Amino acid sequence: MREFAPYSVGMGWVSSRTRQTFTPFGSGTLVSKNGKVGVLTAQHCVREMHRTSREHDTVVLILRDARAAYLPPDSLIEHRLTTPLSDEYGPDLDFLEIAPSDQQRTILGIASVWPLNGNVDTLLREFGTEGLLLAWVGFPEERCETISLPNGFRRRAYHLTCPNVIQQGDIIEKSGWDYIQSKCFYCDENDLPKSFGGASGGGIWSIRVIRDEITRKLVIGKRALVGVAFYETGIEKNEQYIRGHFIRSIYDVAWRNSRKTSLP
User: Rounded to 10 degrees, what is the CA torsion of 47, 49, 55, 59?
Assistant: First the structure.
């Protein structure tokens, strides 16, 4: 669904000296919170960014329509929103603020930013009930490719949208955090990747589908960012669960004890 591409980003490192390799570390969503603009993602993606920072000095954000923004690390400010205690339930959220700069203005000229200032209870009533359509979005590495060129690289990045419906038992609460999970079916007819690695940190959207009064076709009506994906189970009996933080976590809980840290 191209509806969500303006907000989605893929994230990776390159070296400004060679510009011939791309090292991915996750997906994210462009958001604004408390007057700041940046990328909402999973904390373990940022941890991977720190791990792979050696010999790299430029962060690349893959934006809509195969465009990209190159950012020096000093233009990014990490707001550590969580400290993960387990892979399965995290909590696992981070915010990479993009400081006001030429790069930020370039990004805002290409992409869109989702405001995280909605009322949590209203969002839960409108977009967090059983039966609503979900769209999980990200850039799984299994579907992406980096091609080295003499003076740089070409990145083929596939923006995957995986639709699901909120069903009974999909919304979970643990230790003050809320989670949403959905089942992926691996039947002969679908073409899901075997691994969603690289899609971690990607946004989860809730969609209200309406019928156009003129064409009578079903179209996307109101929608809202409702979560951030961070965990995938193994595939068993052709089924796999994808889990993410839900509305209360990303709009409220995660921001109560955020801490600024510096990037490598």
Answer: -150
Tell me the two tokens of residue 28. Answer: 């994210």
What domains appear along the chain, each with residue ranges and CATH number? 2-261 (2.40.10.120)
Name the band, by pLDDT with cuts 50, 70 and 90, for residue 1: low
- Return the closest-CA partner of residue 233 out of 28, 95, 88: 88
Residue 219's pLDDT is 74
Task: Give residue 55's region: left, alpha or beta (phi > 0; psi -120 to 50).
Answer: left
CA distances from 234 to 7, 187, 238 (A): 28, 15, 10
Closest by CA position to 41, among listed 76, 2, 3: 76
HSE of 7, CA atoms in CB hemisphere, 13 A: 24
Angle at 40 between CA 164 and CA 30, to 5 degrees: 85
CA 252 to chain centre: 17
- Which helix (DSSP H) or strand (DSSP E) does residue 142 occupy? none
Q: Over range 140-169, report the average pLDDT.
A: 85
